[in-house]
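Notes to self after the call with IL:
- keep both proteins in one doc
- input above output, always
- annotate only the second one for now

Protein 1:
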Amino acid sequence: MARYRVGIIGCGGMGRSHAKAWSGKPQVELVAVADINEEAARRLAQEFSVPAVYTDYREMLEKEELDIVSIPTWQGVRAEITVAAAESGVKGILGEKPMAASLGEADDMIEACERNGVKLAIGHQRRFYPQNVEMRRLVAEGAIGQPLFVYHRAKPNAGLLNTGSHAIDEWRYILSDPETLWVIGQVSRTTDRWERRTRCEDLCMGLVCFEGGTRGIYEGDLPEPAVRMPKVVGTEGKLDVGEGGVVLLHRDGEAGWREITPPPVETDQYQELIDWIEGKVPEHRSSGRQARYTMEIMMAIYESLRIKNVVVMPLRTRESPLDMMVEDGILPVLKPGRYDIRTPFPEQTGP
């Protein structure tokens, strides 16, 4: 069995998750970890018996002859690290979500990986959830007719790039990864709000039109009351998720909901990256190419406010439109004092 030398860059909570997953793969040897916080890197290395610890990821890439790199860092630095890893000679890279902090950064990541023959996957693990795999199958087979809309209301105080990346990517997967036609969005940012050192909106709303006319409705931190809606609504029925991950199917004209226990998914994002490298699958279901679509939709929600219009895809703006609006004074901070909703700034005492 082939052996893959794996290194991890970013040794926080998600770094631990990646380390645990890679350590369970018989084809893998976890050989190095890197983090600017040496204590965090050494703690992770000790827990998983990793022999090499670095505070400079470039030194790790140069010395360790890695085959695969996991990059579970904050999104603001992930593009730079991904490009460096792609140029170091690795075979595969697994990043986390959101893919990057702007569409231009996502494009840079994809270009560097394609130029160097590197397989790039992004950690949208919901594509491996049994209920989502089953709903994708049911939608594709016409169990609810033509999909009309998908819906997500984000948990409070989370941010579009943080939770929207999961929700929007989940929509696309369930709908068999359709093209995006247009997006319209509204955003408010009157406080100096950040999420893992990337600017974050106070609230937002997005309406996404996919090919075929299916609409995606995203609500982030909007006022109550909330509306309970099924996961997917079609011309002939509805799909939702029930207790314990069962899929709920309601067909128009039938009484009640039918419960479907989805079969287990016999792989995960880590194994599928190995299988992609080995040519056993044509593409990772969470490839960088697919993750870019999710980034494009999120950036288009911001861009819609910036241009005060519908954004017809493809989006051409490389920079984060949210950053552009803040820096141009379109979204002025009315309540001074920057604060990060995930990892407080050193001076932060509260929002």
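Protein 2 (the one to annotate):
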Amino acid sequence: MESGPRFILRSRGPFDLQRSLAIMANFSPEPTAKTNILREAVYIDGKPHILEAKQVKGEPPLIEVSGSEGNVAKIRKIARWILFTDLNLLQFYGMARGNRTLEPIIRELYGVKPLRTASLFEMMIIAITEQQISLSAAYRIRNRLVQRFGERIGDLFVFPSAESLSNASEAELRSCGLSRQKAEYIRGIAQQVSGGSLDAEGLASLTDDQVRDLLMEIRGFGPWSVNYILVRGLGRTDRVPADDLAVRSVVGKYLGGGKRMSGAQVLSSLEPFTPFRGLTAFYLLAYDRLMRFSV
């Protein structure tokens, strides 16, 4: 990026940005070019900006961040959020030390962090799109949503704003591949956020129980969605969407003798890894995909 603010962020604990990007791309159902640079289109003060980040040092982990323009403090805050710089993986690794299953997985994925979406509103919409359909189908639907309702900047699109989705008709949303029910959910959530009755970004300041109680009152969210938002959107490392089919299958594969588990069995098998049960499940999922698809 030729102009705009540029600064260095330090991440806690070991961090391998290039490896993290490769792992996150591996969850995508479509081929993604390998890269060592994070490029995100984000809103800052209501205007689209491009944020770029690349690792310039491994130990301590130093990340060079640049923005197309805008408030440096706000760019820094978004970058720290996306890159999960406050997560200290050494605590997780220390807890898993000596575990015959996790130790080799951690060696393979050393420094990998689950990168977060730029906004919690985006994560809420992602959770709706991924309910009860395949990852590839949800991915295609989201791409259509972004390209139809998002704002373009350069070669990227910013995820649609709450205002944009709240003004969309049900027919327009359904044309992206959403069911009538999911279109209603998304419009309802977007209208609450744009109208000010729901502070999506304010979820970050709430406890897990407070987030659960608030989201469970909103049409479209159930236990799976809430836990998914907690672990993936908010980075609450101990939360697990235990009833997720992929989680039940992968946790059972590595911790349950190869058999798919029930949600209750998932939570029981992950109990020794508290307070990193969700992070443990992420590492198992990431490793499993790594073994099936070349990164």
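Annotation: The longest strand covers residues 47-57. Residues 130 and 138 are 5 Å apart (CA to CA).
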